[in-house]
Amino acid sequence: MRLSRRHSEIVVLLARHPEGLTGDELLCALYEDESVTPVTLRAELARLRQVLGPEMLRSRPYRLAVRVTSDVDVVERRLGCGAVTAAVSGYAGPLLPGSQAPAVARLRRRLADQVRAALIARGDPDLLSDWVHAPWGEDDAGVWRALAAVRPTAPVVARLRSLEGELTADAVDSTDRHP
Fold first, then answer.
1. Are residue 78 and residue 60 in the same domain, yes or no?
2. Which of 21, 49, 64 corresponds to the end of one domain?
3. Quick one: 57 and 47 in the same domain?
4. Which end of the chain is more exposed for a tag (fewer CB within 10 A), N or C?
5. Final residue belonging to a domain, choices 45, 64, 83
6. Contact status, residue 76 vs residue 82, Cβ threshold 8 Å
7. Is residue 168 very low, low, confident or very high in pLDDT (cuts 50, 70, 90)?
8. Are 146 and 128 contained in the same domain?
9. How many domains is the chain built from?
């Protein structure tokens, strides 16, 4: 079933909170802009109920009627038991990358940070290489450093130098603009 970005955000949040969330909790989790009213949220939930079916979305508090397991859950579970290779294979990239919902952005950042940290700690050159050659990892200087430490080939070292040069230039530019 294909969901809109907003409906996907709601399902992600409700899946993370099987006990349910109040309307106010969902508002805070979804919208940075405090001008969004509860009526707007209720309209979104009514549309989501139409898409999922009336038996799938409950209210007071808002919750899913069935347990939903996502790739986020799978990756976290695998990381939790030290199965880094399996976790990386389950990581399809940043969670809802276009989402600006505060709670989704925090979850996306936390998951990526956990995967990244596990990769760096493991030091497996193949896993590190897979990460830096994925769209979300191509500019990840920390992982490039870890890869250069275990596989210092000319292309890896050159890319790391390039990234570090960009980071240095960005830092200088930032200092020039903000004395």
1. no
2. 64
3. yes
4. C
5. 64
6. no
7. confident
8. yes
9. 3
Are 36 and 83 within one domain? no
The model carries a pTM of: 0.87
Residue 50 amino acid letter? Q
* Nearest to 96, CA basis, from 15, 159, 179, 17: 15
For the segment 129-137, the average pLDDT, to the nearest whole number, is: 96
Q: Does 171 score more than 70 pLDDT?
A: no
- Regarding whether 112 and 137 lie in a shared domain, the answer is no
Q: How far apart are CA 43 and CA 66, in angstroms?
A: 22
First-last CA distance in the chain: 52
Name, in order, each residue with C-beta under 8 angstroms of 50's C-beta and a sequence gap of 6 or more. none
Q: Which residue range(s) make up the domain with 107?
A: 70-122
Backbone region of residue 33 per phi and psi (left: phi > 0; alpha: psi in -120 to 50; beta: other values): beta
| Residue 172 pLDDT grade (very low, low, confident, very high; cuts 50, 70, 90) | low
The answer on 146 and 103 residing in a single domain is: no
| Closest to 23 (Cα-Cα) out of 40, 5, 47, 6 | 40
